[in-house]
């Protein structure tokens, strides 16, 4: 059964149950590339002899979505797509008409479009709104000092998401409101090829994520290109935008942990 406690009372509850002889193991979420793992505050409440730093059965059950949950998440993605299409259409028209929008003011407008969707509850993470060279900064966050004006002279990268009662979204899109260079066209096309290859890949159950990740990178490798971050991750249902243990990444890390981490979709 499931017990829910206020966060302030969790440590006291852990200390209480760990003092009982019949409680022999306590699963604590292990850290990996998309999760910092359990906090030291809670980690310290469990005696070393009872700590199990592995992927917990609870996490595995959360990662496997029921058909009703999958349908609900698809509905959230559809609503979020509507908001994004409306936003990009608006922004493109404004840029062509000479309106002044920068990385921050664009996000303000995007929030308005998302808020008009049913069951919207806010952003799922701090969005990456990056124009030109700022798009090369992994996990960039615009500030008043760094925010660039969005024009038709370079690429605009938007990595954002919303929390809806029926699902969580995390969407990255790259656009050019003018005429891209040949190199920009090639790089964009090779990324698209990798996405299609990954989406259509059929692989055996239990395949390690590192072997799947490379499929998305192969078109870039053919041209001597690469990207310095992961390819994909699990996502929650009105929960964490990064939900383990599913992770597509080339960063192998601890081999023992990689052996435990498998891909849970087909």
UniProtKB/TrEMBL annotation:
GO CC, one annotated term: cytoplasm
Recorded GO MF terms: aminopeptidase activity; metal ion binding
UniProt domain Peptidase M24: residue ranges: 73-262
Keyword entries, A-Z: Aminopeptidase, Hydrolase, Manganese, Metal-binding, Protease
Matches recorded under InterPro entries: Creatinase/aminopeptidase-like, Pept_M24, Peptidase_M24B_aminopep-P_CS, X-Pro_aminopeptidase_P
Cofactor: Mn(2+)
Keyword Nucleotide-binding: no
A Pfam family reported for this protein in Swiss-Prot or TrEMBL: Peptidase_M24
Protein family per UniProt: Belongs to the peptidase M24B family.
UniProt-recorded name of the protein: Xaa-Pro aminopeptidase 1
Organism: Armadillidium nasatum
């Amino acid at each position: 059964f499931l017990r829910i406690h206020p966060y302030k009372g969790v440590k006291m509850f852990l200390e209480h149950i760990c003092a009982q002889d019949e409680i022999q193991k306590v699963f604590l979420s292990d850290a990996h590339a998309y999760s910092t793992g359990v906090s030291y505050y809670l980690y310290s409440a469990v005696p070393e002899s009872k700590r199990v730093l592995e992927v917990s059965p609870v996490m595995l059950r959360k990662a496997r979505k029921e058909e009703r949950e999958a349908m609900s998440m698809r509905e959230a993605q559809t609503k979020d797509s509507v908001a994004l299409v409306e936003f990009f259409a608006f922004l493109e028209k404004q840029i062509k008409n000479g309106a002044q929008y920068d990385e921050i003011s664009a996000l303000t407008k995007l929030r308005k479009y998302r808020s008009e969707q049913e069951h919207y509850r806010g952003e799922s993470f701090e969005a990456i709104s990056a124009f030109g060279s700022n798009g090369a900064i992994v996990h960039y966050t615009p500030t008043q000092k760094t925010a660039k004006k969005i024009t038709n002279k370079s690429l605009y990268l938007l990595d954002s998401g919303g929390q809806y009662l029926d699902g969580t979204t995390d969407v990255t899109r790259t656009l050019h409101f003018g005429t891209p260079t040949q190199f920009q066209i090639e790089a964009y096309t090779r990324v698209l090829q990798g996405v299609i290859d990954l989406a259509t890949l059929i692989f055996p159950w239990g395949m390690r994520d590192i072997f799947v990740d490379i499929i998305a990178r192969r078109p870039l490798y053919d041209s001597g290109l690469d990207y310095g971050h992961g390819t994909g991750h699990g996502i929650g249902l009105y929960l964490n935008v990064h939900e383990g243990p599913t992770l597509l990444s080339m960063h192998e890390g601890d081999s023992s942990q990689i052996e435990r981490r498998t891909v849970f979709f087909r």
